[in-house]
Design brief:
With 267 residues, the protein is α/β, with parallel strands linked by helices. 36% of the residues lie in helices and 22% in strands.
Length: 267
């Protein structure tokens, strides 16, 4: 599923614009260092724990050019010397052409580029789509990949979509040598079973490009936003997870990685 970005002619030059939900000047949890964070509009998934339902619908937000976003970055660039730009969402790769242009221009300026994505728009059997992702990888320093659930049936219940193409995207990034940070949200009663955590670790053992693992405790801070939008909060009374539970889950995932690597080495 793709959303076509708009094209405008100004002084005979075609200017590409993307639909932007918002920007954040001093992001500290969106990649290494302090970062300028760009939230893209539009998302094909409907994760039950999503805390940004206002980013779902494509074609909304503010049309912005890559140059205007980089100018906003420049206004605070002295704070980003050990950081860079992170593009997130919504799902930023619903606007892959615009995101590629933005990251390409950022790389030309020597800016560290990071992409926070679910990988949901990757279609490995579509040659044209794969070529777009190849171009994207050439200007992306780091991908923060959200793996919502390792089990396909549970992933469909959680997000409304399969995870097969997402896991294929992780392998695609591995094969192209793009550094990856994996993010996984620990949701009580949904993703917190040891079986699933071990299976996730077994899968991650395949990723030689894995640089970090971040297990995030589920929180309910999005409830108020659902109420303002007149939406029913999908997880109802599901309690928030804890930092201690997330740390335990991280240890189990690492155990799964170690088990798979040991098995693969024959030890």
């Amino acid at each position: 599923m793709w959303y076509n970005i708009s094209q405008k002619k100004r002084k005979g030059v075609s200017r590409t614009e993307g639909y932007i939900h918002s920007t954040e000047s001093f992001g500290t949890v969106d990649g290494p260092g302090v970062r300028f964070v760009i939230f893209m509009q539009g998302c094909p998934m409907r994760c039950l724990y999503c805390h940004n339902p206002d980013t779902w619908e494509p074609g909304r937000g503010t049309p912005r050019s890559a140059e205007s976003l980089l100018a906003e970055y420049d206004s605070c660039k002295e704070f980003y010397k050990r950081g860079g730009i992170t593009v997130t969402g919504g799902e930023p790769l619903m606007q892959i052409d615009f995101v590629t242009e933005l990251l390409y221009l950022a790389k030309r300026r020597g800016i560290h580029t990071c992409l926070d994505t679910s990988g949901a728009t990757f279609v490995p059997e579509n040659t044209q789509t794969v070529q777009k992702f190849v171009r994207l990888c050439s200007c992306t320093d780091l991908v923060m990949l959200d793996i919502k659930h390792i089990d396909e049936a549970e992933h469909i219940k959680l997000t409304g979509r399969t995870n097969r193409n997402i896991l294929d995207f992780a392998r695609f990034l591995r094969d192209r040598g793009v550094p990856v940070w994996i993010r996984h949200v620990l949701v009580p009663g949904i993703t917190d079973r040891d079986e699933y955590l071990l299976r996730l670790g077994h899968f991650l053992s395949e990723l030689k490009n894995l640089k970090a693992l971040d297990v995030l405790p589920y929180h309910t801070m999005g409830k108020a936003k659902y109420e303002r939008l007149g939406l029913e909060y999908p997880l109802g009374e599901t309690p928030p997870s804890t930092k201690e539970a997330a740390e335990r889950a991280g240890r189990i995932i690492m155990q799964g990685i170690e088990e798979a690597l040991a098995e693969g080495s024959g030890t």
